[in-house]
Design goal:
The protein has 30 helices and 13 strands. The chain has about 700 residues and is of the alpha/beta class. Strand 11, helix 26 and strand 12 form a beta-alpha-beta unit. Helix 10 packs antiparallel against helix 11. Among the domains are: about 140 residues, Rossmann fold (3-Layer(aba) Sandwich), CATH 3.40.50.11380; about 180 residues, Glycogen Phosphorylase B (Rossmann fold, 3-Layer(aba) Sandwich).
Length: about 700
């Protein structure tokens, strides 16, 4: 049946529609349909208007009526697919859009719609092909290029994504979102100044666009311009109060600056958002807050929804004891001068090669450091997966026959969660880099210990907890043990008073623990609190000294030292008497550094993984008496140790004399325990014993 031309009334309504007069267009389309309920164009265009207005349930019957009238017109199928996709029926949407392509294989709009459906269904390779067909068929249309750039970004192909987004901008320069996409890619490539310029180009077009303001803040943060970053995140929250990413970043940046006014209100908003299912709240930033394990799990689950896990592939045979070695792959972006690298180098080296083949998959930069070269030599094979899409990286891991894939990043910056979601290995594990549940279907096990993850906490973890016998934290017994450099006076420290220190990042501080520290200083005349300056050190020092003065403590009793390379940093601990741990996010690698160098650590143990790490390290070191459970006990213990001239030197001697026998620093024993855990996981898989949820 030949398509009849649209009636004049329908064309008039379409003109109003295109001019943005949706109410007038709606009335016009309805008038046409009152006269002829089966008019193809009025049904098609009113269906599009209702879809545009978010009323897909009302749009679908109109589009179906149009299709029944003219089933061989591809436009109706294209519009129906868009509506069904919006109604969360991707399978129906794919069927509809493929019908459109059967009718017109050269219809660019249909290829674009197919790409959208396939992208939603996580079939990225097919979606890339569809978008490229749309680009080839409609080179004058910016949308296929933009959608292609979006998908390339999700797949980690940032250079290609930038090229596609810029191609879209060449067609239509007034796309603020395309500038933002370029900025996001540049951030992922570490090109922070360029990212700031791209975000600003988008904001010149849409000054109140929340995503662009958030991206601008992130770029400023990476450039160390934290006060400006905080202002950008705040502006994003004004533009969109429920922007999960900006909410988390605004709070975390205040933590980084030790600018604590307003943090409680932001935390309340974050907790409320998590309870409501607000997406975008970064789980790592929430770990630093006084939340519960349940809240941390819920936040992680919301974040992990970005990467739906594909089913595990069948047919992979996990070797038994008599059938060959287990292949273990370690996936990380931290194979450079990073705390995880310094902790785990010995683990990689000491794995028993008669039982295990050990592979590295790195999406980290090569900083040409000694630790990078050591790590490359520690593995049986070291594979750089930067620039590969998650699908390509997973295919490489799968082709290597990895039995157990260990994610060393969790929900931290540059994590390759999208690779883990591809399920490239039959057993997938989370370890060391992230102190909490990932809330992801693709992770089977989490390695902890009886302190950080006791069995009673299992209900709040989506992974099966595997407990190591001492501390979960592997340590490298080849880490440097440098001698003291200079004297206390050279560092601005008193020679005849207690030197308390906390060399944690400033974002771990908060008003509650700082107040406790000031009470300790008040009760120990002449003592000082020694802190390590890092990002935005002048602002942090100013804010903390102002806080001290507000509590009637001389601001000069806070001593700040600049950040140092590893060995000079470790040497500082010779001049410290007691490390005062922070809470609810304890020192992790920093606490091990202190204990390794003989400096005792005083910790306050909480109820979540990050608030129990200090206790885990101290108990493994035989210093359980330095684990406190109440703030008052923490203060009293610090004061007691500082006022007893023999107590702190005795603790230092215990640490130094017992270093060789300290389970915390027994790299070989920890490696054997981890290997035993891997073999248990493999046995469970062979016997089809699924990790409980």
């Amino acid at each position: 049946m030949a398509l009849r031309p649209p009636p004049p009334e329908a064309l008039a309504a379409l003109q109003r529609h295109q001019a943005g007069d949706l109410a007038g267009a709606h009335r016009g389309y309805r008038a046409v349909l009152d006269a002829d309920p089966d008019d193809y164009h009025a049904n098609l265009w009113l269906g599009a208007l209702l879809h545009q207005s978010g009323r897909g349930d009302q749009a679908e019957p109109l589009l179906l009526r149009a299709i029944r009238r003219y089933p061989d017109m591809p436009d109706g199928w294209v519009n129906l697919a868009a509506v069904q996709q919006a109604l969360d029926r991707p399978q129906d949407a794919e069927s509809a859009i493929r019908r459109a392509l059967e009718l017109d294989p050269e219809l660019a709009e249909a290829w674009l719609g197919l790409g959208n459906v396939l992208q939603e269904r996580q079939r990225d390779d097919e979606a890339l092909f569809a978008y490229r067909r749309a680009v080839a068929l409609a080179p004058e249309n910016p949308l296929p290029l933009f959608n292609l750039a979006t998908l390339l970004t999700r797949n980690g192909q940032y250079e290609a994504a930038i090229a596609a987004a810029r191609g879209s901008l060449d067609i239509d320069p007034r796309q603020a979102g395309a500038h933002g996409l370029v900025a996001d890619c540049q951030l992922n490539l570490g090109r922070h100044r360029e990212a700031l310029q791209s975000a600003d180009a988008g904001l010149a077009l849409e000054p109140r666009q929340a995503d662009l303001l958030y991206t601008r803040g992130f770029a400023l943060s990476e450039l160390g311009r934290l006060p400006e970053a905080m202002a950008a995140f705040d502006a994003a929250l004004v533009a969109r109060p429920d922007h999960g990413g900006a909410l988390a970043a605004a709070l975390f940046t205040r933590r980084q600056l030790c600018q604590w006014d307003g943090t409680q209100r932001l935390l309340e908003r974050m907790r409320d958002g998590i309870a409501r299912g607000l997406p975008g709240v970064t789980p790592f930033s929430f770990l630093a807050e006084a939340g519960t394990r349940e809240e941390q799990r819920d936040c992680a689950r919301l974040w992990s929804r970005q990467w739906p896990a594909r089913p595990a592939e069948t047919g992979h045979v996990i070797p038994g004891d008599a059938r060959g070695r287990l292949t273990v792959g370690y996936l990380s972006a931290d194979y450079y001068r990073h705390p995880t690298a310094y902790l785990a180098a010995g683990l990689f080296e000491l794995h028993d090669r008669s039982r295990f083949r050990i592979l590295a998959y790195s999406n980290s930069r090569d900083d040409d450091s000694d630790i990078r070269r050591r790590l490359e030599a520690a593995f049986d094979a070291f594979t750089d997966i930067r620039g590969l899409s998650p699908t390509e990286a997973a295919a490489r891991i799968r082709a290597d026959g990895v039995d157990i894939l260990v994610d060393l990043k969790g929900h931290t910056l540059e994590a390759a969660t999208a690779v883990m979601a591809q399920r490239p290995a039959p057993i997938q594990v989370q370890y060391l880099g992230y102190p909490g549940t990932m809330g992801a279907d693709c992770i089977d096990y989490l390695i902890g210990d009886a302190v950080v993850t006791p069995a009673t906490h299992q209900p709040e973890y989506d992974e099966r907890i595997v407990a190591l016998p001492h501390s979960y934290q592997v340590n490298d017994d080849r880490r440097p043990l440098p001698p003291a450099e200079g004297r206390r006076g050279d560092l601005g420290l008193p020679n005849d008073a207690t030197v308390f220190c906390c060399f944690n990042n400033a974002w771990k501080f908060n008003r509650a623990c700082f107040t406790a520290w000031m009470e300790i200083l008040r009760a120990t005349p002449g003592s000082v609190l020694w802190l390590l300056g890092r990002q935005s050190a002048p602002e942090v020092a100013s804010n903390l000294r102002r806080e001290a003065a507000a509590q009637d403590i001389d601001p000069e009793r806070l001593v700040f030292s600049k950040s140092r390379p590893l060995e000079p940093y470790l040497a500082l601990y010779h001049h410290a008497d007691l490390f005062l741990d922070s809470w609810p996010y304890n020192a992790h690698t920093t606490a091990s550094d202190a204990l390794w160098m003989g400096c005792p650590v005083l910790t306050l143990m909480g109820t979540t993984f990050p608030s129990r790490v200090g206790a885990s390290l101290l108990l493994a070191s035989g210093l359980g008496e330095l684990v406190c459970h109440e703030v008052t006990a923490y203060q009293e213990r610090a004061i007691s140790l500082a006022t007893d001239p023999t107590a702190l030197p005795a603790l230092r001697r215990r640490l130094e004399d017992g270093r060789a026998d300290n389970p915390l620093f027994d790299t070989r024993a920890t490696t054997r325990a981890i290997e035993q855990a891997y073999e248990t996981m493999a046995r469970n898989a062979r016997e089809k014993l699924s990790p409980p949820t």
